[in-house]
Amino acid sequence: MEKQEEVLLKFRDLFNKMAWLNKEKMEQALQGHKPSEVHCMEYIGDHVDSNVTKMAGALYMTRGAISKITKKLIQKGYIATYQKEANKKEVYFSLTPEGEKVYQTHKHLHQTFQERDKIIFDQVTESQFDAMLRFIDLYSTHLDQEIEKENRTIE
């Protein structure tokens, strides 16, 4: 097996393990919420002036999919819309108190998972972190260029 294939397989295996290990706790704590809904609330909680276009790009989803999800979240009372005085055309989202609860629960879960895994990250040297981050940035830039080459946009 080539090193490239080995790295990709190990990345996939690593992320699958993390997802499997975290899944039950996530489902219990965020009962009744789809992952896509939680990720939209997370984005809104982390970014001021979130709108459909920004969320679609960041979450690698279509604007149509984000519109559907946000419509449901508005109906369920987890997010609200607002407009700015200077631009009445653009619609932005904010969390309601109920949405803020979901956001904080999700954030707390991620902190719990980070604490669980801290034992491993404490063993990684600064230069190892730097090398990993350089590789991830390099690979991400490559993928961005491939997306651009194919004239594909994240609507």
Describe this structure in words.
The chain is mainly α and 155 residues long. The protein has helices at 3-29, 35-46, 52-59, 63-76, 97-121, 126-149; strands at residues 79-84, 87-95. A two-stranded antiparallel ribbon has the order 1-2. A hairpin with a 2-residue loop joins strand 1 and strand 2 (87-95). Helix 1 crosses helix 5.
What's the gist of this structure?
With 155 residues, this protein is mainly α.
Which key features would you list for this structure?
two-stranded antiparallel sheet, mainly alpha, 155 residues
- The sequence of SSEs as H and E is HHHHEEHH
Distance between the termini: 37 Å
What is the overall shape?
A: globular
Low-confidence spans: none
Mean pLDDT: 93
How much helix is in the residues?
A: over 70%
Helix/strand class: mainly alpha
Cα-atom Rg, whole angstroms?
A: 18 Å
The biggest sheet amounts to: 2 strands, antiparallel
Number of helical regions:
6
Strand segment count:
2
Strand order of the largest sheet: 1-2
Strand share of the residues? 5-15%
